[in-house]
């Protein structure tokens, strides 16, 4: 990852506009996910992370749900392939460990299975459709971070 990029845990209410803008650009506009499927009541209860460019512009996001699932991973097109997704995922995994989860799950779009596999995730189920996009369920067992329990 470009060392000038930063990833921070953010408050949903304080950063809602930035989180919405990234997810709208990636999921609704680019991937044609119906708007009513993108927004849910769970957002307010999730841990959200935002990635920022060297100029401090929001460029990517992801969330950790209360059940330990990771979701809504999105990086603006111009920033893909530059380590932003890996940095977001790393922050979400760190948050999951701090929250005490021993495993995390996610629904990976099939084109992203290789990305998650590089980070240790394994496919645990058959392909299925979600919002008109093929997905696979993936899981990662978490090891405690050094210095933890």
- Total domain units: 1
**CATH level-3 fold name:** Aminopeptidase
Count the beta strands. Answer: 8
Structural class of the helices, strands and pairings? alpha+beta
Task: Give the DSSP E fraction (strand runs of 2 or more residues).
Answer: 25-35%
* Poorly predicted ranges: none
Question: Which oligomeric state applies?
Answer: single chain
Topology order in helix (H) and strand (E) letters: EHHEEEHEHEEE
**What is the name of the CATH superfamily?**
Gcn5-related N-acetyltransferase (GNAT)
Which value, in Å, is the CA radius of gyration?
A: 15 Å
Distance separating the two termini? 29 Å
SSE diagram, text form:
Layout: E1 6-10, H1 16-30, H2 35-38, E2 47-52, E3 58-64, E4 69-75, H3 84-98, E5 103-109, H4 113-118, E6 122-123, E7 128-130, E8 133-141
Parallel strand pairs: 4-5
Antiparallel strand pairs: 1-2, 2-3, 3-4, 5-8, 6-8, 7-8
Notable characteristics:
4 helices; 8-stranded mixed sheet; 8 strands; alpha+beta; about 150 residues; single chain; Aminopeptidase
What does this structure look like?
- This protein has 149 residues and is of the alpha+beta class.
- The protein has a single domain (6-141), classed as Gcn5-related N-acetyltransferase (GNAT) (Aminopeptidase, 3-Layer(aba) Sandwich), CATH 3.40.630.
- Helices cover 27% and strands 31% of the residues.
- The chain has four helices and eight strands.
- It has helices spanning 16-30, 35-38, 84-98, 113-118; strands at residues 6-10, 47-52, 58-64, 69-75, 103-109, 122-123, 128-130, 133-141.
- Strands 1, 2, 3, 4, 5, 6, 7 and 8 form an eight-stranded mixed beta sheet that branches.
- The chain is globular, with a radius of gyration of 15 Å.
- The model has no long low-confidence stretch (mean pLDDT 93).
């Amino acid at each position: 990852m470009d060392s000038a990029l930063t990833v921070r845990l953010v408050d949903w209410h304080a950063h809602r506009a930035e989180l919405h803008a990234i997810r709208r650009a990636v999921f609704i506009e680019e991937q044609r996910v119906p708007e009513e499927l993108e927004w849910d009541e769970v957002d307010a209860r999730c841990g959200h992370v935002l990635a920022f460019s060297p100029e401090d512009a929001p460029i990517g996001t992801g969330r950790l749900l209360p059940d330990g699932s990771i979701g809504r991973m999105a990086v603006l097109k111009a920033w893909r392939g530059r380590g932003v997704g890996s940095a977001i995922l790393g922050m979400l995994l760190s948050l999951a460990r701090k929250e005490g989860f021993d495993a995390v799950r996610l629904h990976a779009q099939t084109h992203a299975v290789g990305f998650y596999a590089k980070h240790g995730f394994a496919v645990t189920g058959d392909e299925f459709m979600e919002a008109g996009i093929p997905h696979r369920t993936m899981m990662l067992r978490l090891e405690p971070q050094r210095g933890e329990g």
